Amino acid sequence: ASPADEEWPEAEKAEKLARGAALKWASGVFYRPEKLEALGQYRSRETKRNNSIQARLKSTVQSYLEGVSAGLEQLRSAAKEVQNVCQDLGAARWALIDSAEHFQVLQQMRTLMAEHVQLTSVVKVLPQLFSVHEVFSHTLQLLHEQHLLEAHAELMMLEHLRDDILFQLHLRGLSSAQATVLSYFSGLQELNESLAKQLWGIVGHSLQLVREDPVLFVSAVRIIEREEKIDDALLLDATFLPPGRPKGWRQKFYHILQETITGSHFLTACVDTTGPGLSRHLAALQREVVAELHVVKDLMVQCVPAHYNILSICTATYHQALTSHLQDILQEDLDKQALFLLLEWVLHVYQSPEMMSHPGLLPEVDVSALGPLVSPDLVDQTERKYVVKVKASVLEWMQRTLEVEFKEWFREEEPEKDHQGFYQSALPVIVMQMLSENIQVASLITASLQQKVYSMAMEELEAFLGRLREALVRCGKEHQKDRTVPKYYVPYLLAMLNNNLALSSSVSSLHPDTAHREVPTSLQAALDRTQKKACQLLLEELLLELQPLCMQLPSRKWLSGSQLVSSMCEVIDKYAKDFSCARKPIFMVLLMESERLVTSQYLRALMQKKMVCRSAEERGQLCVRLLQDATQLRELFHGLGLDRRQQSLEVVFALRELICLKDPALLSLEVLSFITKYPDVSDEHISTLLDLRGDVSKEVRHMVLEMMAQHPQALPDDYQPIFSIILVPAPELPFCLRKGKCA
Predict the structure, then answer these.
(1) Which residue, among 693, 704, 697, 702, has the nearest Cα to 669 in the 3D structure?
(2) What is the pLDDT of residues 117-152, one digit of tens each?
(3) pLDDT tens-place string over residues 258-288
C-alpha cells in the first residue's frame, strides 16, 4: 500500500467500491449484447462527467489554498504585534519599579488629606453640637404649641446629625465612642415619644378633626410620610441602621385608626342585650357607621395620600369589628326578640341602602368583597336558637290557651255559636294566629328559618293535640263522677270537634310552599285521634242512656209490643239534635257512629241468651219484632240524613232471616249466605242465634258449625267489623266442679 492509502483508508475503500460498481455495470452490458451499441454514448457521458468533477476539485483546492495563505499572513502580523506589546510591558514594569518610593510619599499625603477633611467636618458640626440641647428645648416647645411640622423638621435635623456622627464612628470601628454620642443625644427619645403621642392622639380623633380642623390631621399624615421615606431609604442601604429605625409609623397609623374605630362602638360589655336595648344599639351602630364612612369618603380621603387606600381600610375595619362584636353578642343568652333583631340586621339591614349600600357610599364602598358579616354556620346556629326560643313561647301560650279552654268547659253556660249555629270557641283562632304570625315573622329573615319555624309549629301543634286529648279524658272522668259536671258536657265536646275540624282545614295554610300545602302525616293522625276521642266521649254519653233500654231485650214483654225501641229512638233523636250543632262532616261521623253503636248494642242484647223461643208462634213474633225494630231504627237514621247504604242495621234484617227460616235443615245454606256477607261472625255467635230459635237439633247444629269450618271467611280491607266487637257469654258447664254439692 502506498503512503497515501495508509493516510486515507477511506479513499481506498471508496475506490474499491467504485471499481466493483463499474465491473458490475460492465458485466451487465456485456451480458446483454443489445446494450453494446450505447457503449460509445456511455463513454462520452462519463468523460464529460469526469472532466466536470476534476474542474470542481481544482476550484475547491484553489480556494482552500488561497484561504490558508491569507491565514498565514495574519498569523505573521499578529506575532509581530505581540512581540511589540511584550517589549512595552517590560519597559512599563521597569518604570514602576523605579517610581515605588514616590508612591509611598503620596500615600502619606492621602492620609493627611483624609484627616484634614474629617477635622473640617468636625469644625463645621461643632456649632450644631453645641446647640443640640437648645434645639431640644425649642423642639419641645414647638410640640407643646402643636407646631408639628416645624418640630418634626428640627427633630429630623437632630437625628441626621446624630446618625452622621454614628456612621463615621461605625466606619472607623469606634464602638466605644457610640455610647457617648447616644447619651449626648438621649433627648431625642423624649422628643420622639412626645411627637408620637401627639400624632396618635390626632389619629385617634381623626374622624372629628377632618371635619373641624383638617390642617392638624394633614400635618400628622405628612410627618408620618416623611418618616416612612427615611425608613425606606435606610432599609435599602442596610450597611448602617441608626437606633430607633425603622419607626414604622404608617403601620402604627393604621393600627391606631383601627383601635379607635373598634373601641368607640364595639364594646360588648356595654350593650344591653334585651330586645329593646339591642334594637337601640343596632340602630345607633347603623347610624354612626354610615355617618363615619361618609366622613372618610368625603373628607379623610382628601387628607391622605391615595396609596393609603383609607376608605377600603376603614370599611374592612368596620366590617371585621362588627363581625367580632356580633359574635360576642351571640354568645350571650338572648331572648327571642334579640335573636330576631340580630338575624334581620345581619342578613337584611347591613347590606341594605340604609347602611353599607347607601347611595352616598356607592360605588367606592363594596362590602360584598369582604365576605359575609356572620358565617353561614353561625347564622344557622342562631336560627336554631331562635326556633328554640319561639318554641318555648309557643308552648307557654298554648298551655295557657288550653288551661283557659279547660276552665270554660265547666262554665254554667253553653259555648258560643257562630252565625250558622255551630258550637265553637276561640281556641283554633288563637292557636292558628299564634303559629301563623311566628311563621310569617320568620319568613322576613330567610326561607330556611321559615321552614324551621314551620316544622317546629307542626311538632308543637301535634303535642298540643295530645295535651288536648288528655284534657278531654280528665273532663270525661270528672263527668263520670258527677254527670251534672260539666253542666254542658255534650255541647263543649261538640265545640271541641268543630275546633278540631277548623284546625284540620286551616293547618295546611301554614305551609311556606303554596304549591305543596299538605298536612304532615303525623299531625293528621293526631287530629284524627283527637276527633276520635271526642266522638268516643259523646258516644259513651249516648250509650249510658241506651244501655238501660237495651237490657230489657229480648224478653216476652218486648215480644208483646212494648215501646222499647220507640224510647231508644227518642234518645237517639235528642242526641241528633245536639249533634246538629256540629258541622256537617262531624255530624255525619257522629250519626254513622251512633247508628253503628245502636246496631251493636241491639245485637249484643240478642246474644245474651236471655230468651229461647218455645214455639213456632214465638219465633214468628220474634221475626215480626225484629222487622219492626230494624225498620223503625232505619227510618229514623234515614230521616236524620244517613243513607241506607251507609247503615249497618241491614245485619238485623239478615239475622231475622235466620230466625224466620221454617225448615231447620236449610240452615246451613242460610248461614253460609250470612257469613259470606258478615265474615267476622264466629261459631259462638251462630250457635247463640241457633239457641234463640229453640228448634235446632244437635245434628243440625253440628252440620252448620262443620260447614262454617269448611268455609272460612277472609275480612275484606274495607269491611267494618260488627260481630267481632260483640262478646258472647260463656256457656254454662254441664257438671259441677265440686261433687259434694251434687247429691
Answers:
(1) 704
(2) 555 555 555 555 556 677 778 888 888 888 888 988
(3) 999 888 888 777 788 888 889 999 999 999 9
How far does CA 365 lie from the centroid of its chain? 28
| One domain for residues 188 and 125 | yes
Of 699, 713, 625, which is closest to residue 664 (Cα–Cα)?
Answer: 699
| Structure confidence at residue 113 (pLDDT) | 74
**449-478 burial by CB neighbour count: b if 16+ within 10 A, else e?**
bbbbbbebbbebbbebbeebbebbeebbee
**Dist CA 561 CA 352 (whole Å):** 86
Helix (H) or strand (E) holding 154: helix 148-172
Count: domains in the chain: 5
- For residue 671, the enclosing domain spans 565-710
Q: Is residue 249 part of a domain?
A: yes
Tell me, yes or no, whether 681 and 695 share the same domain.
yes
Three-state secondary structure of 393-461: HHHHHHHHHHHHHHHHCCCCCCCCECCCCCECCCHHHHHHHHHHHHHHHHHCCCHHHHHHHHHHHHHHH
CATH number for the domain that contains residue 475: 1.10.357.50
Check if the beta carbon of residue 543 is closer than 8 Å to that of residue 601: yes
First to last CA, the chain: 162
- Do residue 436 and residue 330 come from a single domain? no
**722 in a structural domain:** no
Do 207 and 222 belong to one domain?
yes
DSSP string, 14-29: HHHHHHHHHHHHHHHH
The residue whose grid cell reads 372629628 is 208
Exposed, middle or buried by CB within 10 Å (0-12, 13-18, 19+), for 44?
exposed
d(CA 648, CA 734): 36
- CA 451 to CA 516: how far, in whole Å? 13
Report the C-alpha dihedral over residues 207, 210, 212, 216, rounded to 10 degrees.
110
Contacts from 301-304 at CB under 8 Å and sequence distance 24+?
303/210, 303/214, 303/217, 303/218, 303/221, 304/221
